[in-house]
Structures are given as C-alpha cells and as structure tokens.
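Notes to self after the Tuesday call (sharing in case useful).
The group wants a holo model before anyone commits to mutagenesis around the pocket. I volunteered. Ligand is adenosine-5'-triphosphate. Logging inputs and output together so the record is complete.
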Amino acid sequence: MIHLKNIVKQYGNTSALKQINLEIRNGELVTLIGPSGCGKSTLLRVINRMIEPTSGEILIHGENALNLDPVKLRRSIGYVIQNAGLFPHLTVEKNVEIVTELLGWDKAKRKQRAQELLHVVGLAPEKFAHRYPKELSGGQQQRVGIARALAADPAILLMDEPFSAVDPITREQLQAELLAIQTQVKKTIVFVTHDIHEAVRLGDKVALMQEGEIVQFDTPDQILKSPKNDFVAQFLGQERELQRLSLHLVGDIIQQGHGFFDLEQVNINQEHTISIKANARNALSKLLSGVPSLLVLDDDEKPIARVSVHDFIRGAL
Ligand SMILES: Nc1ncnc2c1ncn2[C@@H]1O[C@H](COP(=O)(O)OP(=O)(O)OP(=O)(O)O)[C@@H](O)[C@H]1O
Ligand SMILES: [Mg+2]
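Result:
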C-alpha cells in the first residue's frame, strides 16, 4: 500500500502540491489526471523520492519512505516515462537488464529475466534483444520501457504519460497490453495521463487533480456518474455518459430486467443480434445507426432479451 499523508511540495512561491492525502491499495491501478501543471508528475516522483516533499509523510507497505535509503527505494520501484527514456547506446536486452544488474543479479539470471519480460511485452527476444532503441518504433520502445520497469519484479510501478508519444492505434494496443499484463502481475500502479479515455479505461480508481490538490478520487464509473463539482464535470467533457457506457457490458443494461421476453416470439435469423458480453457503448452505437432493436444472446448464443435505445435512455445503469 502507498499512503501519502499531508504531502506538500513548495517551489518558492509555487505550491506544486498542497496537503495531498491519498491511499492506494496493493494491486490497484490508479490513474492521475488533471490539467498541465496541476502537480501530477510531482506527486508521482514524490512516491519514489526523486522529489523530496517539503512536508508530509509517505508510507510504503507501512514503512516510512522518508527513512529509507532513497537510492534503494528508487531501485525497488519501477518507473516508466514518455518516450521510454531508454539508453541509446545499449541494446534492448541490456536496457532491460539495467536494474537487475544494479541489484547485483548474476548474468544468467538477468538474461533469463530479460528474455522472459520481452515475451511478456510482446517483443520476441530472438528478433529484438540485440537491437538498439533507434531501431525500434515508438510503441516498441515503450514496451521495452515497461519490460525494464518490471525486471526486478517491483511491487510498485510509476508511469508518467508512458503512452503519450505514440499514435492512437498503438496507444490502444499498449493500453490493452498493460491491462493484460496487470492481470498477471498485479502490481500497484500509479499512472499519469492527460487523456480521460485512458484514465477511465485503465484505472481501478481515478484521481483528478487541480492546482496541487486532489479534487476527486473515485472509481471511473463513480467519477463519470457523479462528478463532484463543475470543474470535474467540465474536465470529463460532454461525452461523460457515453464514456460511462463504455465501461459496461450489454449484460449490465439488461440486468435490471429491461427487455426480457418470451422466447417463443423470436426468430434469431430475422433480427440484429449482440452478445451479452459486448460493450454497451457499441450496442448503443449500433442502435443509433438505425437498427430498431438488438436481440441479446447469452454465452450459448441463446436469445435472452431485446434492447432498444429506450433501455439506454431509461438509465438502466
Ligand atoms: N523544479 C521546479 N522548480 C519550480 N517549479 C516547479 C519545478 N518542477 C515543477 N514545478 C512547478 O510545479 C507545478 C507542478 O508541476 P508538474 O510537473 O508536477 O505538473 P504536471 O501536472 O505533471 O504537468 P504536465 O501535465 O504538463 O506534465 C507547476 O506549476 C510547475 O511549474
Ligand atoms: Mg507531468
């Protein structure tokens, strides 16, 4: 667990962080979002003491981080930044091995770990291990950055806008991969982003910051459903409801009993269908394209309900 208590960071007259209190549970992925200059990177870097707070307390797994050796602390926490920050003169494999080498792992073990992680991030070692960073695409470099951060198997991973510099398609892929990796490794992750879609897609919780303060700390669903004030609502934007739908499946829409019907009446070949596991936003999108209703199929492809635009408007969620 990461527990920040009354963290203040002052740069002369600028209060980069004002009395931050935040508790992040083990295995939780928290996204930090807010306008430029609101203190996201500062908050992230206070956690591994790349920045020393002016006052306040940082507890990591119950231990006071300010009493730990900062170098050891930094090595025990994975850190990923925009553009990956790889060493240009080192091969991919050597870049991944950096931290484990600093920690004194023997060569065979380091190499084995690097190979394993390149697999995890989707880069076949036989193809990529001996390349240099400039011989990789931006997305591939980010993958190496993630492999490097995971090498020493840290419990905590700090990620500062890691996917901001890649194209939208690669970005979506990297997000999906991060979620897949996270289900395997269950790290405690703090992830800074400017992108609200990314924040709600990745986060178990979202912390929204404004001028050095956390304005709201909630689950993505809750923050989209009940923004605490006008600033939050404005920041989340006009698509708030649609984004919220994208967090749900068709099954969530019908769970309240909407649209259930008598099976006798249905001819599956004459209707547009959608899986109960499909994304609710995609279902609405289909309906808005002019299909009057969708037959919802369960896992065995058996029709169980029918939904129309009204089920979405009715606010089933
Ligand atoms: N070394 C420094 N000296 C003085 N002021 C600083 C320093 N580092 C950051 N600041 C100020 O602290 C505030 C928070 O900066 P920070 O980098 O944490 O913002 P951010 O939310 O990460 O912004 P961005 O989204 O643009 O990356 C800003 O007002 C910034 O100008
Ligand atoms: Mg920043």
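Two things stood out.
The domain at 250-313 is CATH 3.10.580.10 (CBS-domain).
The chain has a mean pLDDT of 91.
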